[in-house]
Structure formats: structure tokens, C-alpha cells
UniProtKB/TrEMBL annotation:
It comes from Bosea thiooxidans. Keywords: Receptor, Signal. Belongs to the UPF0065 (bug) family. Pfam families: TctC. InterPro entries: BUG, Bug_dom1. It comes from the Bacteria. Gene3D superfamilies: Bordetella uptake gene, domain 1, Periplasmic binding protein-like II. This is Tripartite-type tricarboxylate transporter, receptor component TctC. Residues 1-22 form the signal peptide.
């Protein structure tokens, strides 16, 4: 009889533990895959946001950099992981909206095959160059590139990355689609080579270049947004600088595998929202030029709509672009 009572107690304890676990997400650290090298925009935004989300969730979000193939290696790993809420990724305009048009054999479907969490931030694009490049402004730079495209080296973070995508659009407008290009595992390492003058220019998200522009280790020709950024108020817009057709908004956001438990999705959405409302986190993001997402963009559906809108916009231009 005693044995039976103990047995029942143990069974009850086990079923309670199971229930508690299902209710208690997260019960262990969560991995957030950053599909580029450390020090680039995706890594910077992921670390700032994950830092605050970890506090809300009561479990650490551990950043894992899995670089390669313009970010598609890391995103493939994240969205094909077990859909248990313990593997998510920080992707962006490139990996979620540009990659399908760039990689015909892409192993994930950003529109129908993953669980969006929300947008972490808008990241305006700047055309930046090594500081001793002769051209003093965007008009002179454009004229020099058009006259001698083979004299310039562009740095990017791989086919389908934001830097590749946005510079592909830039070169399309100039009519110089083929320029020597050097691919890096992220624009963090690319920026190091721009600062040391080993490459000439790149198109990059504001968060990793703002500090370098402020300290004059590189020069910024223009920001490809409708308005100047409060983080870099001296940098003209492309419209002001004479290239009004070059307008593109990049962004970073979080997604995971399709089929994640609702509880995990809800808690991640809530933690992201709390991070974006936290004064300290907001300041860190705004100082780097991040544009805070709207309430709608912070939701899974709002973020999914943004991914689709930008995929529809980019696909015609990228499908036809040289893949270099
Ligand atoms: C990109 O070009 O896609 C990003 O800047 C890559 C990165 O975050 O390093």
C-alpha cells in the first residue's frame, strides 16, 4: 500500500513537472543565431536586444555567430531547428526578403516556412568610403565610379546580404552593375578593411558605421532614406546629394522555426516589445541610428507582412542582377 501511495505521488510529481515545463517556457538558455560575423549590424542589434529580452524571460539568450553564404547558412540552421522556442535567429532584409531571389535553391521559405517574432529595428543604409578616397561628395563619387568602374573595390557581406543587396541597387542606378567586389563573412570585418583602406566603399546599415563616421575613420556620402538620421545629422540624404532614385530601408528582425509553441512565441514577442520600450535599450539603439519599429511591426503578423512587401519589391531587380 505504501509503495502504491509513493508510486502515485511520484506520478503526480512527474505530471506536475511536465505541466510546469510546458507552462514555464523558457526553462533553459535560448540560442539566437546571428548569421554574420561579430561586430556587424546584425550582431550589434542582436546583442543589444537579447540583453534586455534575457531579463524579461529569466533565461539567457546566447548569441551564436553562424556566418556564410550571405547569412543564409545561419538562417537555415535556425529555421530548420526543433521548433521548441530554444533556437531563434536575428535576420534582416537580406536573409528574409532578398535571399529567395538571390539563391534559387534556398533551403528555407521566409514567407511560409518560418515563425516571425517581430522587427527589432529599422537600419538606414549609408554609402560609405575609405576616408582618403578622392571624391569629396556623392556626385563626384558617382561620376568617378561611372568613369572608371574597374578602379573601385566594393566590400559586402556575401550574396543576398544587406550590403550586397543595397549596393546592387546602387550600382543598378549608376548603370555599372559589375564592379570588383570582395565578400566578407559580415560587414564587421569588411568595415575593418574599409577603415584601413584595403577596400574603397560599401553600402551598410547605419548601426555599425555611425561611430566610425562620427570619428572620421571613414566617410559617408549619403543616407538612402527620405530624412537625415538624428544619429548622423551632417550626412545628406541621397535626394539632397543628387541621387534621389536611390532610396532603400533596411531592417533587422527575429524569427524561428515554424511550429513553435504559442507560449514561446507570445513570450518572445512580449520580451522583444519590453526591450524596445526599455529606456536604456532604446537609447543604445537610437544612438546607433536605429529606427524603432511601430507597434504593428513588433508583432509576428506585422513583421511577416514587411518581409513579404520587401521580397516583392526586391525580387525583380535582384533576380536579374549579376551574382558577384
Ligand atoms: C549585411 O551586409 O547583410 C550585414 O551588414 C551583415 C552583418 O550584419 O554583418
Amino acid at each position: 500500500m505504501k509503495k502504491l501511495v509513493l508510486g502515485l505521488a511520484a506520478a503526480a510529481a512527474l505530471s506536475f513537472a511536465g505541466g510546469a515545463q510546458a507552462q514555464g517556457y523558457p526553462t533553459k538558455p535560448i540560442t539566437m543565431i546571428v548569421p554574420f560575423a561579430a561586430g556587424g549590424p546584425t550582431d550589434i542589434i542582436a546583442r543589444i536586444v537579447a540583453d534586455n529580452m534575457s531579463k524579461t524571460l529569466g533565461q539567457q539568450i546566447v548569441i551564436e555567430n553562424v556566418a556564410g553564404a550571405g547569412g543564409t547558412t545561419g538562417i537555415t540552421r535556425a529555421v530548420t531547428a526543433a521548433p521548441d522556442g530554444y533556437t531563434i535567429a536575428m535576420g534582416h532584409l537580406g536573409t528574409f526578403s532578398a535571399a529567395p531571389a538571390t539563391y534559387p535553391g534556398l533551403k528555407y521559405d521566409p514567407i511560409n516556412g518560418m515563425q516571425t517574432i517581430g522587427l527589432a529595428g529599422g537600419t538606414p543604409i549609408l554609402i560609405v568610403a575609405r576616408k582618403n578616397l578622392e571624391a569629396p561628395d556623392l556626385k563626384a563619387f558617382v561620376a568617378a565610379v561611372k568613369a572608371n568602374p574597374d578602379k573601385f573595390n566594393e566590400a559586402h557581406a556575401g550574396l543576398g546580404s544587406v550590403s550586397w543587396t543595397t549596393c546592387t541597387l546602387f550600382k543598378g542606378i549608376l548603370g555599372t552593375p559589375k564592379i570588383n567586389a570582395v565578400a566578407y563573412r559580415g560587414t564587421g570585418p569588411a568595415l575593418n578593411d574599409l577603415v584601413s583602406g584595403q577596400v574603397d566603399f560599401m553600402c551598410d546599415q547605419i548601426v555599425s558605421v555611425a561611430e566610425q563616421v562620427r570619428s572620421n575613420t571613414i566617410k559617408a556620402y549619403a543616407i538612402a532614406s527620405a530624412e537625415r538620421s538624428p544619429a548622423l545629422p551632417d550626412v545628406p540624404t541621397t535626394k539632397e546629394a543628387g541621387l534621389p532614385d536611390y532610396q532603400i530601408e533596411a531592417w533587422n528582425g527575429i524569427a524561428g522555426p515554424k511550429g513553435m509553441p504559442k507560449e514561446a512565441v507570445d513570450k518572445l514577442v512580449d520580451a522583444l516589445n519590453k526591450a524596445l520600450n526599455d529606456e536604456g535599450t532604446k537609447k543604445r539603439l537610437l544612438d546607433l541610428g536605429t529606427v524603432l519599429p511601430t507597434a504593428e511591426e513588433r508583432t509576428p503578423a506585422g513583421f511577416a507582412a514587411l518581409i513579404k512587401r520587401d521580397a516583392d519589391k526586391l525580387t525583380p531587380a535582384l533576380s536579374a542582377a549579376p551574382k558577384q
